[in-house]
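Input protein
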Amino acid sequence: MRALATALFSILLAASTRGASPQSPPATAVPLQQPDVASGKRIFESHCALCHGLDGGGGRGPSLRRPKLNHAADDEALKSLIENGIPPEMPEAWFLSNEEIASVAAFVRSLGNVPPEILPGDPARGKTIYARSGCSACHILNGDGSSFGPDLTDIGARRGSRRLRETLQNPAKTVPEDFLLLEATIASGQAIRGIRLNEDTFSIQFRDQQGRFYSFRKSELRGLKKLRGETPMPSFGAALSPVELDDLVHFLATQRGKP
């Protein structure tokens, strides 16, 4: 009996050993693929250059040729920004893989190491032209001026010299997508022009050039014209000589906000 029991135990032990799954070898970590800056450059030129310029110097979107980006303090924030965008101005890059996003981010970071543009003109003379031309009537620069138009304190960091020149020469061509000049005719028949601040189905709010704020129910207005593509900014293409235009562009390009 003892021999039989021993034999049965041996058979059961062998069967259990055959049925047991061998332990899997420990998983080895897959090394992360290094971002490909050249690939990121090609993707940038295909999908990002329309707004940021082929050289990253800015256009409809801000210049990226700087070491610190306002919306991306580190690489992870930059990759998240590329993937998710900034609605409604910057679309999300849902069609890019994680590797492609990392490559675009690496290329964008490389733009911060590009030497600053060498521009013609004298920024000191440009400052005088800025004051003489009455730009502060619509723009704030380092705390001085009116807020009817965009703040120019960091315009040199947000826009490249090519975009600055184009705006000065033909401002209607570079009107931001979210900018809308409108003309509201109130019950008395008076027409008021201003820049839209907010609008919903029933009401609209805007600010005129003197800085006055208005809020109306649309049903109270006799008329409401949306002047799409128009801007109150005059063209300086004919008002300034080529040398003066160089001076003013150079002055604006040096306005990069607080270091």
